[in-house]
Write a structure and sequence with these properties.
Blueprint (H helix, E strand, L loop, with lengths): L4 H11 L4 H10 L9 H11 L4 H8 L7 E2 L2 E2 L8 E8 L9 E8 L2
Antiparallel strand pairs: 1-2, 3-4
Length: 109
């Protein structure tokens, strides 16, 4: 299901990636025939000039715009990490240290 143009613009500004003024300036600088008629066209135009990545446009469209800026960091894409390793632990100690054992750690996101 596609968002309406106003909803996409609102989500984009809520993400912190662009302000409402920046979006309006971008759209107004486009030729009349090239101005987006819907959210998908706006997203494609922003990706084409490098204002957004395809990942960011997809996340905004799926309602995950708040996950794109973390503090001073802007998320550009998805990082997939597959890590499998042996993990060793120690016996608990009076100070609350970890226990001894072996296991496998697998994490993928």
């Amino acid at each position: 299901m596609s968002l309406s143009l106003p909803d996409f613009t609102r989500r984009l500004t809520e993400s912190g990636l662009m302000s409402a003024d920046e979006v309006a300036t971008f759209v107004n600088r486009l030729e009349e025939a090239a101005r987006p008629a819907d959210a998908e066209q706006l997203a494609q135009a922003l990706v084409a000039v490098g204002h957004l990545t395809a990942y960011q446009a997809k996340e905004i469209n799926h309602g995950r715009e708040r996950e794109l800026v973390l503090g001073n960091y802007v998320i550009l894409g998805k990082l997939v990490v597959c890590l499998t390793q042996k993990v060793s632990y120690r016996e608990p100690h009076e100070r609350g240290e970890l226990f001894r054992g072996e296991g496998r750690l697998a994490w993928s996101r």
